[in-house]
Amino acid sequence: MLLIYESWPSIITIYYVCESHLVKDKNPSTIYNSRLFRFSPLSMPQRSSSDSEVCTSKKAAEILGVTVRTVQLWTDSGILRAWKTPGGHRRYLLSELLKLERSFSDTDLPETEASSQSNQLSILIIEDDEKLQDLYRLRLGEWEPSPKIDYASDGFEGTLKIGSSKPDVVILDLKLPNVDGFRIIEALKKTGVINEMKLIVVTGLSKEELRTKLADTDEIVLLQKPVPFDDLKHHILN
Fold this sequence. Notes:
Elements: E1 2-8, E2 11-18, E3 21-25, E4 29-32, E5 35-38, E6 54-56, H1 57-64, H2 68-76, E7 83-84, E8 90-93, H3 94-104, E9 122-126, H4 130-140, E10 148-152, H5 155-165, E11 169-172, H6 181-191, E12 198-203, H7 207-213, E13 220-224, H8 229-237
Parallel strand pairs: 9-10, 9-11, 11-12, 12-13
Antiparallel strand pairs: 1-2, 2-3, 4-5, 6-8, 7-8
């Protein structure tokens, strides 16, 4: 449970965040889910700390240097933690945003959204197998005209790069460390980002397994390993 509060000389407003629900109450004793929570104003944390400063989605986007839709994508994929107000608006802790911003320096991010203005086809390959990355590099490097290729070795890094660079094509493995491919697809669909790119899933799973785990594949090109590079080229360039 996360507690955020606002205080004035004569009134205290308490926000309870519990099991993804938010309750606002002006009484320091509130029954929630059949349990009584009592808080003393003297024991509450000081709001001057960044740990208790709250940001809107728009402010979060400004801090991270991306669009609001990218913030939504990172939230739905589990990279960013947020909660919703009673009106359905997402809120973020400033400390979480700053933590994510610091992680950018540890991740080899390509151009930002604002500076990515090239006619060259951009492809992001999210694949944790380094040998397969090398094979992609070799085979796609033979294409004319040559595409701009970037790589991510896990779902966390891949989702960051989708949001920051907005590639034309994403080649996605499903079994990934940190954030798996299924969650990435779910987040892309939920935010509508999937409509801004061509998504190609290359996986070792059978078509039957994919049908049971992916309810709707209309917006996805499904290819099976070993990578059929001729088919891959056809789907990307045509």
